[in-house]
Amino acid sequence: MKIVRTVCRIIVGIVFIYSGFVKGIDPLGFSYKFHDYFAAFHMNFMQFLEMPLSIFFPAAEFLIGVAMILGIRMKIASWALLLFMVFFTVLTFILAVFNPVSDCGCFGDAIKLTNWQTFDKNIVFMAITLVIFYGRNKYPHGSGVFSEWLMLGIVLSGFLLIMIYCLNHMPIIDFRPYKVGTDIVKSMETPMGAPQDSIRSVLTYKKNGEIKKVVLLKENTQWPDSTWKFVEAKHEVIKEGYKPPIHDFSIKTFDGNDLTDVILANQEYSFILITRDLSKASQTGLQRANAIAKYCKTGRCKFYALTSSSQTVVDSLKKTFLPDMDFYVTDGTTLKTINRANPGMMLIRDGIVLAQWHSNDFPSPFDLQGNLMAYTLSKGNSKASNLLAWVMVFALLSILLAFRIYQLRMKN
What we know:
By secondary structure, the chain is an alpha/beta fold. Helix content is about 50%, strand content about 15%. The protein has 3 domains: about 1-170 and about 390-410, no CATH class; about 200-240; about 260-370, Glutaredoxin (3-Layer(aba) Sandwich), CATH 3.40.30.10. The protein has 12 helices and 8 strands. The protein has a 5-stranded mixed sheet with strand order 6-5-4-7-8, with helices on both faces. The chain has a 3-stranded antiparallel sheet with strand order 2-1-3, with no helix packed on it. It is flat, with a radius of gyration of 26 Å.
């Protein structure tokens, strides 16, 4: 039984660390999921909790996972694990039955699960959790309260620093459909032979107060005669087919002209400004973007500003301090998916994403005067180096403290 408890502890620890990490590196994206939850359950009065919850839950998950892996503070960690699993098992059951949102977001953008798949996963982990919880008093005691809480405190501090960094810059690992290197055109295509949506259509007819429903594609369908009056048709998706990673990307003028294909086929470098709500965008970021737009007018590259704001808002700001930008319309949800920042920016060429920037990291026109490809590659290498440094420091602290705890245990 000891081996079973240890295996359960390790499995839960790995899953909780992974789940907390993939959400923690994109806290703003996770806050959008809380927004969907509150809207679906008519709890808009709780929207002020979206960001605090998007920080609390990943951090708590990550900390519980670390405690499970190291086997420290097991009584408290077991209670926290049980409360987590009970809450989310009930929540995912409700989501599976009523389907108010299509994806629970339990693994961020890294892994997409249907609501029923998520519920089934939680049932399995609920069973593992019960094994851990009922055996919580049988796990070996640690070397001391102080050393174990010190370990967890440093892990939590390091994780919170990573979350703060990702809030003010780009995620250190990008799982979104528009990450650097993505071919937007290919990501919008549906492969040959891909499964299509399975749809059931129900037609409603009425005569003399009596209602008759006809299900299309059903065997032995009995159609009503011409004396019946057609009322309505309802279409229900029974089973979803293949959906491309990018399926809602479009760029239109305010007059409704679609420029998507033209812009994606352009062989020149194109800077794409992302500002879903222009009235709430960082003015410093917009001014930096306007400097890039002005530079692009020299002919070296193109510049497009995408927004879901009204033309009235656009015209007002364009007159005041954004004279060099040309604005186009894109759906707000799509803009939030492309880039979390408001404003954010990406660089594309021939439909391929070459770079993504938070407004805090916009390049200056001086940076763009050399070879743009070389510049984006150097910035990509720099970002990879920063990520490696974060991971190495975080791992080093964890190893040193874990070793110290081991020493204290052996001493005791």
